[in-house]
Structures are given as structure tokens and as C-alpha cells.
Amino acid sequence: MAATAKTSPPNGAAHIAELDASKLIVNLAETLKPIPEDAHFGEHKTDHMLVVSYEPTTGWSAPEIKPYGPFTLDPSSSCFQYCPNVFEGMKAYVGPNGEPRLFRSNKNMERLTRSAERVALPPFDEKELLVLIKRLVMIDKRWIPTKEGHSLYIRPTIIGTRTALGVAASDSALLYVFMTPTGPYFDSSAGGIPLQAVSKTVRSWPGGTGGHKLGLNYAPGFLPQRVAAKDGYVQILWLLPHEGEERITEAGAMNFFVVVKRDDGDLDVVTPPLDGTILPGITRLSCIELLQAHTEGRTVLPGIPATQRLYTHERPITMRELAAWTEEGKVVEAFGVGTAVAVLPIGRIGHEERDLVLPSQEGLGVVGKALLRRVLDIQTGRFEWEGWSEVCEV
To answer: Does residue 137 share a domain with residue 224?
Structure first.
């Protein structure tokens, strides 16, 4: 996707500055924080953050990497009133020689661009932002955990900062990036996590914003999530009513996959389509492409025979269909995928006052394990695959 859309100068303005990594200002912290022993998701922040602002008359300011700390914003800023807030989720990993690595970061930049466009925030140069993110990672690389399954979570964010209450797009913005060391998002040591299927409250709808990573997509799910937790479920399985059926969309903040046994012994791996209601996850895309590569003979996934065919399908899945597959003994496993969780088993689904128990209640099956192992190996540079893992060299 084009990353360098230009902003037309307003009347009287001579030049609107583009985002330019060569103008970076670096102000390092005088005192560095101790690295925490336990990496709980989002709890600890690294020493530094990246900040750059946009004004309609001047464009993007000089980027600055400076010590992590709070902002001062006008109380009437658009981000507080109308929620033009977008963000990304990406991670840095330690490679075989101790080098920091990113995973398919160009995909994150493309998605951030699409999200910013959806809420009419100012455009930015994806390549320049990625250079700045890599510089931030290099400065704070000591924060990248080396423990298996751990990483440094990176949160690029853009918020509207227009200081007026008129209902209109924000022509001012603040772009910032901060980072936090993290371990596993969920504890799956006891097996697959339980989901509560919900259709009376929807996460997204056709023509809405579910296909973009916007802050406004998340808050409406907090109350249903609280209800699900009281009922003994870890996450929500979001259903979308459609012509008398309930279509599966997302599992919490994860993309949903189910593996179904075919009559010929091969396996169908089915996930809902990107119809605008589902976030186009980078891990989702990677899993689909790895499954296809296995079946095409371009790679062999760990623990799966080369002769085992894995046919991927991006199509609607209804709860009625999933229940029928389960009752017929055709479901091999179900799992969710995402940046935070990588690949996570789904053990049961509460629906219409009963639980649909899945084979992955005991943990990941053969397909989920293979994908998790291969994705982690690519992310950490132990397995090279199509340039997906990038060494941070700036």
C-alpha cells in the first residue's frame, strides 16, 4: 500500500514537512531503570519513547527519542472527545547472536496507515516511521527478554490533538511509540482457554471499523468481558447474527482457527474471512501462508509429515456448523492467533447455556503446535523464511 501520501499545503503555507527520520533528536535518560524479573504484559515501560507531532500549517515536527514520561494535552483534544485514536501491536525479539529483530514490521506499518486513514488522521511515511522504531529498539535493546516465549512489545500510537469541540476530523496529531517487556499473555499451561460466545453484543458490524486497529473498537467489549469472567470464561467469542445464523468473527482480540478432519485423511484449516468485521492480523496471515507453503511442498512444518495436506479456507463459520463438526468428531483442534498470544489453544466455548468442548481442551494439537514452533523460530531468527524476520540495523 502507498505509504507516502502528500499533504497539500494550506493557503499561505510554503511547506508542509513530511515525517523525516534524518531529523531525529535523541535525548537519553540520565538514569536507567532496573529490568524487572517478571515481564507482565504492559506493566513496565522501557527507558525511552519516540514522540513526533503534526500541525496542519507546518506538518510533522522533528522526531524525538526521549525518556519515557507523561504528556500534556489540552482537555478539549479530539482524542478525548471523539476518539480518533489508532495503534499497532508489534514485537522485538532477540536473534541467535543477540541481535534485536522485528517480525514483518512492514505489515504493521501498512495496517497503521489504513487505520489512520479510516479516522481521517494526518498521513505519514511508513518507511520513515519504521526507521525511527528500529532506532528506539536499538537504544532500549537491553529490555528485550531472552526467555523463550518472551519479547519486547512495541506500541506505535497516533492520536488526534485538535483543540476544538466541533465534530470534525482532527487536523493535528501526536504520534508516539513506547515499549514494554512481556511474557505469555495467557497462562495456557492447564490447557485450552474457555470462551463465552456472545451475539447480543457485537464487536463489529459490516461497514463498521472492525477491520482497523482503533481504540474505539476495544472499550465496548470491556463489559461483556467482565460478564464472561464472572461466568468462568477467559475471553469472548464474538458472534455476528446473519440470516438466522450466528457467524464466528474473533476470539477476544485474536483471530479464530478451527482444524477439521476430512474424509480422505487430510485436514481443513478454516478461519473467518476478512469481510471488514475482522482485524487482518499479521499472525493470522503468517499462519495461513505457512500452512499453504507446507501443502505446496515449499516447507515442512515441525511435527507434521510432509505428506499431510493442510487446506486453508477463509470463509464464514457458524456456531451451528462448529457444533455439528464437534458432535461428528471432525474437529481436531481450535486455536486463536495474534501478536500478543502467538498461537493459543481454545478448550471450550460456552453457547446457549452449554459448553462445546473441543479436543484442544488439553492444549495445542499438532497443527497449533507446528505453527507456534515455526512462528517463534522465524521471529527469533532460528528459522529464516522469506525475509519475515528483520534485524534492527540503523
So the answer is: no
Number of Cβ within 10 Å of residue 82's Cβ equals 18
Longest dimension (CA), the chain: 70
- In a domain? residue 2: no
Residues 272/249, Cβ–Cβ less than 8 Å: yes
Domain identity same for 130 and 174 = yes
> Smallest Cα–Cα separation from 239: which of 215, 263, 281, 210?
210
Q: What is the CATH number of the domain that holds 230?
A: 3.20.10.10
Q: Residue 12: pLDDT band by 50, 70, 90 thresholds?
A: very low
Domain boundary among 119, 153, 182: 182
Residue 85 confidence (pLDDT): 98
197/318 Cα distance (integer angstroms): 11
> Over pLDDT 70: what percentage of the chain?
96
pLDDT tens string 284-311: 999 999 999 999 999 999 999 999 999 9
**What cell numbers appear for 104 in the block?**
514483518
Q: Tell me if 9 is assigned to some domain.
A: no
What's the distance, CA 32 to chain centroid? 29
Q: Are residues 108 and 63 in the same domain?
A: yes
| Dihedral sign from CA coordinates of 215, 220, 224, 229 | positive
> Do 217 and 363 belong to one domain?
yes
The grid coordinates listed for 54 are 503534526
Average pLDDT (127-142) is: 98
How many domains are contained in the chain? 2
CA 355, CA 194: separation in Å to the nearest integer?
A: 9
Residues 167 and 204 placed together within one structural domain of the fold: no
| Alpha-carbon 303 to chain mean position | 26
**Residue 305 placed within a domain:** yes
pTM of the model: 0.94
- Grid cell, residue 351, equals 453457547
3-state secondary structure 6-44: CCCCCCCCCCCECCCHHHCEECCCCCCCCCCCCCCCCCC
Q: Encode pLDDT of 20-45 as tens digits.
A: 999 999 999 999 999 998 878 889 99
For residue 58, pLDDT beyond 50? yes
- Per-residue confidence at 6, pLDDT binned at 50, 70, 90? very low
The answer to whether residues 269 and 155 belong to one domain is no
